[in-house]
Amino acid sequence: DCNNDKYNIDDSTCWIIIKTRTDSVLFLFFICFVFFLDCVHFSRNPVHTTDRKSIRGKRSPEMEDFLTCFNLFLRSPASHGSFLCELRRFLADVLPRPDSPPISLDSLHSLPPLTIGPSSSESLLAGLMNSSAPTVFSFSGGPSMFQVHRGELALPPALLEELSQRLEQMATHTMEAMKEEEGADRATRSLDRLHSLCVFPKAEPAAGERQYRAFLLLKALQTVARSYEVQRALRATRADHDRPPRSNVCSLRSLTVSLERYLVGPNTAAINNCHGACAFPMLNGNNHAVLLNSHIEGGNVGERAPCCVPVAYEGLEVVDLNEHGTYLTIKPDMVAKECGCR
Fold first, then answer.
1. Which GO biological process categories is it annotated with (predicted)?
2. Is residue 324 part of a domain?
3. Are residues 92 and 155 part of one domain?
């Protein structure tokens, strides 16, 4: 207690003592946590005695990520790298994690990449802000990108005001939606920190880096909101006792797949799928499917029956952040939107 007269310590000296003690506690916690992560890693990945020398000094990818983000936070909690680390952790906490093997994004067909930066056109940025397509964020260079990546935007005043308003609305909407989810307290604190690093000053124009962070956070929250809507719809369907939980009618079902590593978030994509029967009366079937079904019901069982398949898609937006800048790639026909019998 620095206000206690028996210590006779001035305020500046007191602040130094408190900061020194706080840093010591944080450092001790850091050492203990690193030791804990190492124990967990080796308990899950036992190493033979003769192999221990060959792995000495090596760290798991998860440990490298943690150390990079922890060092960034200690040096500058408000830095761009700290923001990206916090964004990744937030998305990892709130988005679903499937058990399926990861799929490499490089194996998918893509449109030519577009650069996201001060020279980006107003129409491109406005279109992305209003897009409903899900977004994932990729670090093609791994955790080292947190330390070297830089990003800025130069939005015109009207678009900057729209970005600010949409971000406030989406942040409020996401806060309300998270109250119904598990782990809401941690996710809420994380979103508060992210939002504080994006708020535009009222007395002067927002810096290019803050515009960039606000843009990334808006795209991330749009994806989170979409994921929550899907999960709520699934829970409502399960809770509806008036109809079977898995109707046999051809319809759209939720499907989340795992993507490759080095994704800030989400490292998953909700691509959906179609399930159900295509018997009469046929739902959303074209003329070919209707005639084919009648032909088969007439006794011609050797033909392929109509199948429940996606008939409308939307793309997936991939934001790639690397040492050269920020690039947007569209993966077309990635997410199923509508089903039909074909």
1. cell differentiation; gonad development
2. yes
3. yes
Contacts of 335 (CB under 8 A, 6+ apart): 133, 134, 269, 270, 271, 272, 313, 314, 315, 316
One domain, residues 209 and 330: yes
Distances (CA, A) of 290 to 61, 191, 283: 53, 50, 10
Alpha-carbon distances of 118 from 13, 141, 149, 150, 215, rounded to whole Å: 45, 22, 15, 12, 12
Tell me which residue range forms the domain holding 323.
59-279+303-341
| 29 is a domain residue | yes
Domain annotation covers residue 218: yes
| Whether residues 137 and 89 fall in one domain | yes
Query: Three-state SS for 328?
Result: strand
One pLDDT digit (tens) per residue for the chain, 342 residues = 555 454 455 554 454 444 445 555 555 555 555 555 555 444 444 444 444 444 445 555 555 555 667 665 656 666 777 888 888 888 878 887 766 677 777 788 899 999 999 999 999 999 999 988 888 877 666 556 666 677 899 999 999 999 999 999 999 999 988 887 777 888 899 999 999 888 887 766 677 889 999 999 999 999 888 888 877 766 665 555 455 544 588 988 888 888 875 555 566 788 889 999 998 778 788 999 999 988 988 888 788 999 999 999 999 998 888 878 889 999 999 999 999 999
Tell whether 156 and 126 lie within a shared domain. yes
Interacting residues of 267 by C-beta distance below 8 A, sequence separation 6+: 92, 97, 102, 136, 258, 259, 260, 261
Q: Is there a single domain that holds both residue 47 and residue 124?
A: no
Could you write out the three-class secondary structure of 291-307? Answer: HHHHHHHCCCCCCCCCC
Q: Which helix (H) or strand (E) holds 252?
A: strand 251-253
Q: Terminal CA-to-CA distance of the chain, rounded, Å?
A: 76
Quote the number of domains for the chain. 2
Do 223 and 310 lie in a common domain?
A: yes
Distance CA 296, CA 120 (A): 55
